[in-house]
Amino acid sequence: MAAATKDAILISAVDQARQVAIEAAENPAHVGEHLGAVVEGERLVSHQFACTAPGYRGWHWTVTLARVPRARVATVCEAELLPGDDAILAPSWLPWSERLRPGDIGPGDVLPFLADDPRLVPGYVATGDEDEDRVAIEELALARARLLSREGRDRAAERWYAGSQGPTSPTAVAASAACLTCAFMIPLSGPLGQLFGVCANEWSPDDAKVVSLDHGCGAHSETDLEPHPSDWPASGPKFDDMDLELVSMIVEEPTAIPEEPRAEVPAEDVVAAPDAPEVVEPEGEVAAEADADAEVAVPEAEGEGEVASPEAEGEAEVASPEVEGEAEVASPEVDAEVSFPESTDHVVDAVAVESDTFEPANPDDVTAEPANPEDAVDVPDDDDPRSHPES
After folding, report:
1. Domain ranges of the chain
2. Does the structure show a pLDDT above 50 at 274?
3. Is 248 exposed, middle or buried (0-12, 13-18, 19+ CB in 10 A)?
4. Cα separation of 288 and 311, whole Å?
5. Angle, helices 310-317/345-357, rounded to nearest 10 degrees
6. Distant-in-sequence, close-in-space partners of 221: CB < 8 Å, separation ≥ 6
7. Which phi and psi (to 5°) does residue 144 adopt?
8. pLDDT for 88-105, tens place per residue?
9. What is the pLDDT of residues 149-171, one digit of tens each?
10. Strand ranges, E, within the chain
């Protein structure tokens, strides 16, 4: 058979093939660059375009064109999406019965029936002997259509012993004693009873599970037992001779940093710091007057009735209407905030003026001397100009 030759008309029909690929892709963005043309046979060429659709890496659009003899127009044969050498493909198809793995069966699922399962053998067939049939059916429970074969029993024992209920699990390695000495272990009958039992301890992580006799956990019935030493020989220390750490045995002393010479500043270039302001202490007389003013201000704030002088007592007993009004009806400003006057000179002057014109109602109430000389208030003299403010 002669080799197929390139057809110039079919090779040059790239735009026609691209338009067909776009129609098949239904999205122009999913058709990429032209990858080339492959001669399939006599007057039969396939154009390939890259596929840019998500999830189709390595796939390409293939449009096959043909031409009848002596015709100058290409005809579209087919258009399809084909995988390349590095395309992502699904795994080979397997029947459902072969795809199942242990643990895949859920509620409502049913396994397919296997008539030739190597793990099973035909069950017991009645012989007509009453004693033999009673032992086989009632005691050994062999009255079933199929029973577990030797192969099936051995495969189950290997799987259980190598699993998480065997002696090599982390729980069993850390246990202080094996399940063989535990009171919660129920042994099995038959050949499997030589290696396995069923755990009946609700506090154990293996409760209601088949465990090997050399398995163990922290819920052993005798938890006061001493930890059992490991059956594996203790390995000696291992040294890595290829990894060396270089340590310097020379003690390095810190090098002293030479001090830089300081430049001397001429005395005439030194600027004197500004003098601090002097604090003027008050003289003795001024300080004494300030203390006296503070002492007089406090009794007036507390009340005029506590003054021990005769004139003050008279004022407290027979008060003028103005004073009573001030004492009984307090202004909102006074109730909200009590302020002390800065100076009490004018208060002393007012007391002095009233003492000159006031006459007590009962002369017997006037005492010559105060009860406590320390509480007496000095009454200004008549010659004192402060006692006559009107002058």
Report:
1. 8-83, 166-212, 285-387
2. yes
3. exposed
4. 25
5. 80
6. 182, 183, 184, 201
7. -130, 160
8. 888 888 888 788 888 888
9. 999 999 999 999 999 999 999 99
10. 31-41, 44-51, 59-66, 75-83, 120-122, 146-148, 185-187, 196-199, 210-212
